[in-house]
Amino acid sequence: MRRTERLFQIIQILRSNRSPITGRELADELEISISTLYRDMAELHAQRIPITGEAGVGYVLDDGYDMPPLMLTADELEAAALGAAWVASEADPSLARAARDLVSKLSEAIPKELRPIVLDASSKAIQTRSTVAERFDGALLRHAIRERYRLQLTYADRDRSVTDRIVWPLLIAYLDRTRYLIGWCETRQDYRHFKTDRVRELKVLGEKYPGRRAALIKGWEEATARRMPS
Asked: For a tag site, which of 56, 117, 167, 212 has the least CB within 10 Å?
């Protein structure tokens, strides 16, 4: 977990606990050392996050701290709600939960007069068939994408031939209710699109791939453009 994600997670844990939580409990939940937690707390205090800590008692987030007010128009808010609803119906379970949490936080953070727009938007994301069944944890894949970890895939192609691949994961794409993992395939020495429901097994390897992710995505976009009919 990156430090920025961990700092946010500390705030989330404290927000969900009305009673003080000890440093050891926080460190255990985050799977970090107590010294790392103390450094994180110092950073949060430097950012003026209102966390109160007392030796022998624990940490507590002051009442009233939450997301800053959102200056959104009704159309912008409905677009956000519709997007979250689409993700909740199309994405893997962990991302779908995050989308539902986003709608809840939007409802809490915006003025009362705009809340019905989130809860009852005029546009709807309609699910017409069951979502894609995947054999791996989508959160694990997204972590590998963000942190540039190489993957080992066991993959079945359209002819059901199964191969093992080493892949540099770049992004997840959605097309016609199908999810694709887009990455650089070491085995084929080229960019490849892998249907996520054809991935038999996914393993995150311990080492990161070379190069910048942004540069590789640009290379994929250029390669895709060259293959498009003129």
From this structure: 56
- Asked if 165 contacts 159 with a C-beta cutoff of 8 angstroms, the reply is no
Question: What is the helix (H) or strand (E) element at residue 217, kind and residue range?
Answer: helix 213-227
- Is residue 128 pLDDT above 60, yes or no? no
User: What does the alpha-carbon distance between residue 38 and residue 57 come to, in Å, rounded to a whole number?
Assistant: 15
Beta strand 199-208 pairing with 149-156: antiparallel
Confidence class for position 131, pLDDT limits 50, 70, 90: low
Report residue 122's pLDDT band, with 50, 70 and 90 as the boundaries: very low
The three-state secondary structure class of 190 is strand
Domain ranges of the chain: 3-61, 66-131, 138-227
Q: Which two tokens stand for residue 217?
A: 């995505």
Encode pLDDT of 166-202 as tens digits: 999 999 888 877 889 999 999 899 999 999 999 999 9
∠ at Cα 199 (193, 202), nearest 5°?
A: 105
Question: What is the spatial distance between Cα 106 and Cα 127, in angstroms, rounded to a whole number?
Answer: 22
Considering only the top CATH level, what class is 3-61? mainly alpha
Residue 170 in tokens? 């770049």
In this structure, which topology does domain 138-227 adopt according to CATH? SH3 type barrels. (2.30.30)
Amino acid making up residue 47: Q
Q: Which residue from 89, 100, 204, 66 is spatially nearest to 142, judged by alpha carbons?
A: 204
